[in-house]
Specification:
heterodimer, A: about 450 residues, alpha/beta, 4-stranded antiparallel beta sheet, B: about 575 residues, two-stranded antiparallel ribbon, globular
Chain lengths: ~450, ~575
């Protein structure tokens, strides 16, 4: 392994802003960090926090709106010739064989034909793909495809190896074995790579692999924690120190339940940030509520739950965020606790659940605003595009669309909203038009 | 057999809102056509072409000549498409003009290009060469547009991760072209090439015999043979000619297109094995022949490999993703000059249009309406028979396997070749030419519909058929709830192409010379063809622009909306 002297990569006050005029969306806000030689760092955070964008900026695929990228102390211009990316989706050329896929990277660097073949075969041998040289990507499994991805990345002998969620498209066992092999290559010092930066949303994976964990949060994407991991390799997942670290990261990512006005934010168009609705499946939410309802004291450790339910941490965190936002549960110190309202919801009939859900979402500023708009409009209906344009004052285009999608999904479940896809019109459900008269479930909000 | 849905594929119509580019394009085209027309006023005296022999023995020679012309035009089309499409895909500013331009160019009838092309070539080259070049260029105008669209669409839909990987690994333009862009576009390019050749055969006669005013230009070839045979009313010769044409098309299909399709199956993007890959006996034969392999190794692979290495090492690297490059001042200056010239010419075109009398405008308007009715009639008739037949074929694999080659050969006969026979049969009837015109449009365009409907019917999942059976839906209910909605997107895609083809066919359908006589009926196609033949250039300009504007408007108002609706609601994917 390389000697840790001086930084390989430095980011100074990186900002990435999209849009213009009134509709400005900050994807990355003031990120400053450095990566030293010999370091294996992971970049963590929820979906949409800008991990991938940051990787693109680091490798030079994208130029940031503001800020500086220094590589070995020099400002980066264009694509960094000493860096490479392993992609989540493999990004292999389907019409080239495994060997050709590796060779083409060497060819682009001007390596002569004979040497290309030897080097490619050697690399494929090293990742254990001996015998598959002439296979086409469509003949291989996900794990093997990613091995080709690794071999191709190694072929260009990168000093800085960026991994963009390389294991998340793989099944559990393939991912596990590939992680082990990556560590072997890295700690064995057989590759010329000086530093690795891994973007992931798998917390356990980050603690298992990295010397340092950089945690990002979204809205806007920014760095919120820089955690050193001082455990020796190979790391044991049952080790209390390991578990403790994973718990800490969960704690940071899950956050603590804030006072209600902070949790809920403001309505679109008003000063202050509008709280985005987490994009979730409502059936998953009810499932989580039922699960918590069955736990002693209606309480669970988030990390333990992720392992038990075999659910990826990103999805779980989004569900938890929803439960918190609706006032069904509180989060503190990496634990989630169902409150009485959540308990009622979990035990209620389908019909009653919908009513509880309806009363809860009608308190969210985004919903209040949306229902208000509809109530004030002609025939209690509005076109999708109009609402989306209004939401775009608060969110960037893609997110505004997702928000409206989620709002309609929730509104339909709560029977507050209806939406006609062919005419693209939202309207109030007759029952929801003047609001429920039965406000039976008016429990106090989260503390 | 190949999957029915792969029988025939065309570029998806492009969905884009009208933009300022459309206006610029329309003005520029008006200016350009005017320019050609202007040239036409100073044309050389009459030219008599070579005599053509109707003896079947000459057919091989004629077929060779025609195929050669087609091949040259096709080569030109490919080169043009690669350059034009690449430029449009990589320069946002240029894209705004280039794509509407392409849209408009493909609705301009072949004959309207004639004066521009012919006369400018005659001005530069010796006559014989100029005629050949004009003919090739005319064929080119019937081949190239869909290829260009296909290439452009492929370039703009390459998966982002593959583009990123190419950039990350520092591919230079050549390596990127060879490893990423060309393979990704290959399948679509091959299908569109087949469509292009079909388009070329359709207009072969128009491209080998053309008259401008007193001047009659003729080139030896299959198209002229057929025309001459029709002129003499020689049915035996017509049969020989059609036979030779069909044979040529079948040979090309078996020896070139099918092998290419079989070979290109490797370029499928999906990461799973396909169930029914296209096959070709000729491709298999080539692959298993050791002699062929040795020869290609020596003559193709080695030089190609060397060229490849040379290009890979010589061309400069591109650091940034290329999309979004800015115009330099040079381009601005060039664009400005061009804009000034075009504006002037547009003004001149306006002056020329002034010479079109009110009565002539009346003819154009009436013609437009009549042709519109004919196009609609052709579409309705085509839909009426292709719906039941297409569904029958598409839902029955055995029927499909049996009918597929038959349908393909029938579809490959260019309708224009049969037109003289149709005329002979129909001219005696009241409204004969009218009937024949609709029939020609139908013959030329029904296949697009049929192929799309077969593809749509075979794409209906079996479990939905089963559900319909379990629910004991009646015949009509089954059609209403399952088959018609499922076919809708495919029928629309087919109808868009068919309607475009029908408008284009109106030029050859509504005005024809046959047996030394001229037959014409009312229609915009007749107006264009007649004014081209009579050197009435203001009228030609007016009629062409009217047609261009009408077809463009109909596309915007009707087809694009229907297409969007179909994609949003009825696409089963």
């Amino acid at each position: 392994m390389a000697d840790p002297n001086g930084s390989l990569l430095e980011l100074r006050h990186i900002n990435q802003i999209y849009g213009g005029g009134e509709k400005i969306f900050t994807a990355i806000q003031d990120v400053t960090l450095s990566l030293n030689e010999g370091e294996f760092a992971t970049l963590m955070g929820p979906t949409g926090c800008g991990k991938s964008t940051l990787l693109r900026i680091i490798t030079g695929l994208q130029t940031p709106t503001a800020g500086e990228v220094l590589y070995r102390g020099k400002p980066l211009q264009g694509v960094n010739p000493h860096a490479t990316i392993v992609f989540q989706t493999f990004a292999l050329f389907p019409w080239l064989t495994v060997q050709e896929n590796v060779e083409v990277a060497l060819k682009a660097r001007g390596v002569p034909p004979k040497l290309r073949t030897t080097r490619a075969l050697d690399l494929l041998d090293r990742v254990g793909l001996d015998g598959f040289e002439n296979a086409y990507p469509r003949e291989l499994s996900g794990g093997m495809l990613q091995k080709v991805g690794f071999a191709r990345a190694m072929a260009v002998e990168p000093e800085l190896l960026c991994l963009d969620e390389p294991f998340s498209a793989l099944d559990v066992l393939s991912a596990e074995s590939l992680r082990g092999e990556l560590m072997e290559l890295w700690t064995g010092g057989v590759i010329p790579t000086r530093a690795i930066l891994l973007a992931t949303h798998n917390i356990e994976e980050a603690v298992f692999l990295a010397d340092r964990i950089l945690v990002m949060d979204k809205d806007p994407g920014r760095l919120i924690m820089n955690l050193k991991v001082d455990l020796p390799h190979p790391r044991q997942r049952k080790d209390p120190k390991f578990l403790n670290l994973v718990d800490r990261v969960y704690m940071v990512l899950a956050g603590h339940t804030q006072p209600e006005h902070v949790e809920m934010g403001t309505a679109p168009g008003e000063p202050g940030r509008t709280r985005a609705l987490p994009h979730i499946n409502i059936d998953d939410l009810t499932g989580l509520m039922e699960h918590l309802d069955g736990m002693p004291n209606n309480r669970a450790d988030i990390y333990a739950m992720a392992r038990e339910l075999q659910i990826n941490s990103d999805d779980l965190l989004r569900l938890i965020e929803t439960a918190e936002l609706l006032g069904f549960a509180t989060i503190a110190y990496g634990d989630i606790t169902l409150n009485p309202l959540g308990e009622t919801f979990a035990e209620a009939s389908i019909r009653a659940r919908k009513e509880i859900f309806a009363t809860r979402i009608r308190r969210l500023p985004l919903f209040k605003w949306l229902l208000g708009l509809l109530r004030a409009s002609d025939k209690k209906q509005m076109e999708w595009d109009v609402v989306q344009k209004a939401l775009e004052l608060e969110f960037h285009e893609e997110e505004a669309e997702r928000q409206l999608d989620t709002a309609i999904d929730w509104g339909r479940y709560a029977e507050l909203l209806a939406y006609d896809d062919s005419s693209q019109v939202l309207f109030l459900e007759p029952g929801g038009a003047m609001g429920f008269t039965r406000e039976n479930f008016n429990f106090p909000g989260p503390a | 057999m190949s999957h029915p849905s792969r029988l025939f594929r065309i570029a998806q119509p492009l969905l884009r809102p009208p933009s300022w580019g459309d206006a610029v394009v329309f003005m520029s085209l008006a200016a350009l056509i005017y320019l050609g027309v202007h040239l036409g006023l100073s044309a050389p005296p009459a030219i008599k072409g070579p005599e053509i022999s109707l003896s079947p023995g000459h057919l091989v020679y004629y077929a060779g000549l025609s195929t050669g012309r087609m091949a040259a035009a096709y080569l030109l089309s490919v080169i043009f498409s690669l350059i034009y499409g690449t430029y449009a895909a990589n320069h946002r500013g240029a894209e705004k003009i280039l794509i509407p331009l392409l849209d408009a160019l493909q609705t301009i009838p072949i004959l309207s290009f004639l004066p521009v092309v012919l006369l400018s070539f005659i001005a530069i080259f010796p006559l014989r060469l100029a005629l050949e070049l004009s003919s090739i260029f005319l064929i080119f105008t019937s081949q190239t547009w869909n290829l260009t669209f296909a290439w452009y669409q492929s370039l703009t839909t390459i998966p982002r991760n593959l583009t990123q990987a190419s950039t990350m690994f520092h591919f230079n333009p050549w390596l990127r072209f060879k490893t990423l862009e060309l393979p990704f576009a290959a399948i679509s390019l091959i299908w569109n090439s087949m469509a292009s050749w079909a388009g070329g055969w359709f207009f072969l006669m128009a491209a080998e015999i053309f008259s401008a005013g007193e001047r009659n230009f003729r080139l030896p070839g299959l198209g002229m043979y057929l025309q001459e045979a029709a002129n003499q009313g020689n049915l035996t010769a017509i049969a020989w000619g059609v036979g030779a044409l069909v044979l040529t098309i079948v040979i090309l299909d078996q020896l070139i297109w099918r092998p290419l399709l079989a070979w290109s199956d490797r370029f499928k993007l999906q990461l799973s094995e396909s169930e029914t890959p296209p096959t070709s006996w000729f491709y298999d034969a080539l692959r298993s022949s050791r002699l062929i392999r040795g020869v290609t190794q020596a003559l193709v692979h080695r030089p190609w490999g060397r060229l490849d290495e040379w290009l890979t090492s010589r061309l400069p690297k591109t650091a940034q993703e290329r999309r979004g490059q800015r115009f330099t001042w040079l381009w601005y200056a060039l664009g400005l000059t061009l804009a000034l010239v075009l504006t002037y010419e547009f003004y001149q075109a306006g002056v020329m249009l002034w010479a079109v009398t009110l009565k002539q405008w009346g003819i154009i308007g009436l013609g437009l309406l009549t042709t519109l009715v004919r196009v609609a009639a052709a579409l309705v008739i085509a839909l009426a028979w292709t719906l039941p037949v297409g569904v029958a074929i598409g839902t029955n694999q055995r029927l499909a396997a049996w009918l597929q080659p038959l349908v393909q050969i029938t579809a490959s006969i260019p309708a224009t070749a049969l037109f003289p026979v149709l005329l002979l049969m129909l001219l005696g009837l009241p409204g004969g030419l009218n009937l024949a015109a609709v029939l020609l449009m139908l013959l030329g365009t029904q296949w697009y519909l049929l192929f799309n409907i077969i593809a749509g019917a075979s794409a209906i999942p079996q479990d939905l058929h089963d559900t319909a059976t379990l629910l004991q839906l009646g015949r009509w209910e089954r059609w209403r709830t399952l088959i018609l909605p499922a076919l809708f997107p495919y029928a629309i895609t087919g109808a868009i192409t068919a309607a475009g083809g029908a408008w284009n066919a109106s030029i050859v359908a509504e005005y024809t010379q046959f047996g030394g006589q001229t037959f014409k009926t009312i229609g915009i196609g007749a107006a264009i063809a007649q004014s081209a033949a009579a050197s009435d250039y203001p009228m030609l300009l007016a009629a062409t622009l009217t047609m261009l504007l009408t077809v463009g408007t109909i596309n915007r108002l009707v087809w694009q909306r229907l297409y969007r609706l179909a994609e949003a609601r009825y696409r089963m994917e």
